[in-house]
Structures are given as structure tokens and as C-alpha cells.
Design a protein that fits this description.
This protein is α+β, with helices and mostly antiparallel strands. The protein is built from three helices and six strands, in the order αβββαβαββ. It has helices at 8-21, 91-100, 112-115; strands spanning 28-31, 43-47, 52-60, 106-111, 124-129, 134-143.
């Protein structure tokens, strides 16, 4: 299958899965589909020591970009990020996992809870790419274990 035929959101979900699976304290990571979650086409189910956390992934094309055509891949300075000791699979942890990848295609990672202080219920990250595209990774919740 050509890269043009693979939806960008699917490619980003695979990238995110690779980042997460190499993170300490993660015992299993799979796509939401593999985990039996059918209501969200893209996302991850991440098993930590005492619970599973689920994240939905959506995508916004860059201005002028069209589905079915190869993406304009633009490399630049990797996103600045903050290391964290938090290992709960939450927003701060996820932002650090993405930042740690040092991907030259990722320009910036914004945490929703720090951006929208008046909306503490909005938990997730927006990943900005150097080509103008964005990925939105929304927290769906924990299962098992108390949080």
C-alpha cells in the first residue's frame, strides 16, 4: 500500500504506538480496534501496572492538503518538551512521550489542560507538525484500578 493510501491519522497512530511501547511502566499497548473499542476508529489502549488508559486520535490536514495525495513532509527543529516523573498515562505523561521521540516532523505539543485553564475536563494534546497538519489526542479515560 502506498503512503498516499494510508490515512495520515493511521500513520500517526502507529508512530504514537511505537513511542508508547518503548516507555517504562507500559506493559501493553494496542490500537483501540485491537482492544475491541469500535466507536473510535483511531486511538490507543495503554496498559500500565494498575490500569488501562485510552486515547482517541483524530487529524486535521494542513491547509491546501487533500486526502489521497502524498503528504508534504516537512522536517524542522523537534518540539521543545518537558520531562516528567509522572507515570500515570495521563496528559503530562503523553506529552513527554511524544516529545521524547525528538521527531523532526513535530513542531509543538500543546497540553489542553494547561491551555484551557477554565476547562479542566478537557484533557488531551494537540500535536502540531512542521507541514501545518495537526493531530488531536483526546483522553477517553481509565479502566481498572483507581485514578
Amino acid at each position: 500500500m502506498s503512503e498516499a493510501a494510508v490515512p495520515r491519522v493511521e500513520a500517526f497512530t502507529r508512530f504514537l504506538l511505537d513511542c508508547v511501547k518503548n516507555t517504562p511502566n507500559v506493559t501493553r499497548v494496542q490500537t483501540l480496534q485491537e482492544a475491541g473499542v469500535a466507536c473510535y476508529p483511531y486511538g490507543l489502549a495503554i496498559q500500565l501496572a494498575d490500569s488501562e488508559v485510552r486515547w482517541q486520535v483524530t487529524w486535521q490536514l494542513a491547509d491546501g492538503e487533500r486526502h489521497g495525495h502524498p503528504a508534504a513532509e516537512v522536517d524542522g527543529e523537534p518540539a521543545a518538551w518537558e520531562e516528567t516523573d509522572v507515570q500515570d498515562g495521563g496528559e503530562e505523561w503523553l506529552a513527554a512521550v511524544i516529545g521524547r521521540s525528538r521527531s523532526p516532523r513535530v513542531a509543538r505539543v500543546d497540553r489542553w489542560s494547561t491551555r484551557d485553564a477554565d476547562r479542566p475536563d478537557r484533557v488531551g494534546v494537540t500535536v502540531f507538525f512542521h507541514n501545518g497538519a495537526r493531530a488531536f489526542v483526546r483522553f477517553l479515560g481509565y479502566s481498572g484500578g483507581a485514578r
